[in-house]
Structure formats: structure tokens, C-alpha cells
Amino acid sequence: MRTASPTPALLDLEGMLEVIGKAPAIYRPARFWADLNQVHLQQLSRDAFDHFKRTVNTRYFNWGILTHQWLGVTLRWLTRPVPEVFQAEFPSPRLPGGDHVGSFDPASAWLYKTFVAMYAEILSWEDPEGLLGRLQEPDLGNPFLIRYRGRGISQDLCNSIHEFYSMMAGETPLVTPSRGLHFAELGAGYGRLAYAVLAARPTASYCIIDIPPALYVSQRYLTSLYPDISVFLARQFDSYESVREEFESARLKFLLPHQLELLPPKQFDYFINISTLHEMTSAQVENYFRQMGRLCRGRVYTKQWRVSRTRVNGCTLREGDYPVPRSWKTVFHRRHPIQRMFFEALYAVG
Q: Counting runs of H as helices and runs of E as strands, what totals does the chain give?
């Protein structure tokens, strides 16, 4: 008589930290993130979940005014200037008594809201699925919300829409909105891109692979936004067979990095990494490229610094240093039009 396998225990933040601490070294956070995670844990402890978009998120991909972003947006906006961007509003650039969270003084607030409005205006030029009109920045996490053309938008939302269209470029008949696509993202921050993808592709599934506390934040955020979606919550497990049924039926899935090795090959149509590979050691980068090639059956989308020097990791990575397998076909590899110190690339893996 066959006995049922025990259900693996779900992990809270403390449990995630304990499990990742015992994972093989190649999957544990490199020095850069080990140090930064201590800061993030303090921020989450002090502010709980209420203001995470103004605390931990400022080191995910939501920046203040950076020259390379401002230049990229302004140069493109000037080709079709629209004065309405100067009417954008920034209702809460600073929290009362919130000196320990991200904030803007009046001058930087004006620059920031104009930058986000310009970014949204540029996106509206080529928005075939009307995502700007369909999506608004969720209030959860207290974002730096900009009001423009009657809608609540953010830098995060603009980046996510731009990345969505980039990685979906040149869809084939096999990869269509009506098919239940399977996405995976390594290092998803709080899940901003997953929010946009699940809204744009309502039949898709999305798997986030990350270290804590980011995995905890994204799991809590996305399950709050999508309470009716089937979820595979983060847990410790030693074999895929023990979780296969629940994992494959879920539309939202959360994994710790070392659990990638337990997954069968060719699980995902799209595998995504945005601005985290450069924060790893060379050995980790090589390992994750192997895992992406093993697990992806469609496209790999990556967006990284053109030159990154992470001294604490003892690693410098330039645009041409990433170990892209020769068997991958380059769909595009280009300088990012907005974050001009970045490149983005899309590969057909097959």
C-alpha cells in the first residue's frame, strides 16, 4: 500500500533565511546581497510591510533621479514633446515624520514626477495592448505614486510595461496571448513585473526564484494583489515528486534558488533576469546561465548594467562577459533606450 508523502512545511521569513543559509554556497547570497539584506531586514522590521516601496524597493530597481535615465527619457520625449507632462502631480513625495524612508524635496519631486510622466508618454506611443490604460500602480506598499492623465502610475509600472513588450517581441504562433504561458523570474524584487505580466496574460503562470527577504516580500505582495490565484508558497522540499501536483497546478510559484535544481527540464516559456546577475560572483552567473538553458524552452530576457564593478564580490562584468551559450539565438541585444547605462537582450533558447 502506497502512503502519501507528507506535505512540506511552508516557510515564513525566518524559515526562508534558515533554509537559504544551509543551501549550497553557489546559491547563497554573494557578499553584496548578504550585506544589503541585513539593511533590508532592519527596514522591514521597523516599517513592517506598510512602506516597503519606499524602503527596500529603492535598491531593487526604483531609483531617484539618475542622469542616464533622465537623459534617455528626455531625448526620446523631445522627438514628440507633449506639454501635459508638466501637469503631472506627486501627491506624497515625503511622509510626515518619515525621515527613515525614501522621500523627495520640492525640486527633486518636480524632476521625478516629470520624468515618470515623460516615461509614460513615451510608452503610450507603442502600447498595442493598452497596458497603460488597463494598469495602475497598486497602493500596497505605499509607492511613489504619480498622477498623470487621471491615472496613478509609477516608475516601476513604466519599467514593467516596457520590459513586458521587450521580452514579448516577435511572438510566434506558438507563443500567443491565448496560450497558458509559463514565466520564471530570477531575482524579482517585490514582484512588480509579475504583477504586470499576470494582468497582461490572464492564463499565464509565474514562478519567482529569489533569496529572502525579497522572496518573502514578493510572495506577500502578489498573493495580496491576486488572492484568488492558485499559489505554490515557498517551502522546503527535497524532491519534485513530493510537490509536483501542487507546483504544476499553481499560477503563482515561489522558490528558493537552490530548488531550481529539483525542477525537471524545459519548464518555462520565458525566463527573466533584470539587474541581479551583476551582483553575483562569476561562478554564480555561470551556474544560473546553465539553469536558464536547462529550464527554458522558449526565450530568455535579460537586462543588466553595461559595465558593473561589484568590488565587494571581487567581480567586474562587462556587457560581453556574460556566458551566453553559443546555441542560443540572439533575437536582439541593444542599449536600453531609457536606462542608458544598461543593455537588454532577448535570446531564443528552444
A: 10, 12
Superfamily of domain 164-348: Vaccinia Virus protein VP39 (3.40.50.150)
The answer to whether the beta carbons of residues 317 and 327 sit under 8 Å apart is no
Could you give the CA distance from residue 258 to residue 23 in angstroms, rounded to a whole number?
Answer: 6
H or E, element range at 253: strand 252-255
Would you kindly state where each structural domain of the chain is located, as residue ranges? 164-348
Residue 3 in contact with residue 19, Cβ under 8 Å? no
Helical spans, DSSP H, in the chain: 13-21, 31-47, 67-77, 106-125, 131-134, 155-167, 192-200, 214-225, 244-249, 282-295
Angle at 80 between CA 79 and CA 84, to 5 degrees: 135
Cβ atoms of residues 144 and 154 within 8 Å: yes
Residue type, 15: G
pTM above 0.85, yes or no: yes
189: left (phi over 0), alpha (psi -120 to 50) or beta: left
Residue 171 makes CB contacts below 8 A (sequence gap 6+) with none
Alpha carbon distances (Å) from 299 to 80, 181, 345, 350:
32, 11, 10, 7
pLDDT tens readout for residues 100-143: 667 788 999 999 999 999 999 999 999 999 999 999 999 999 99
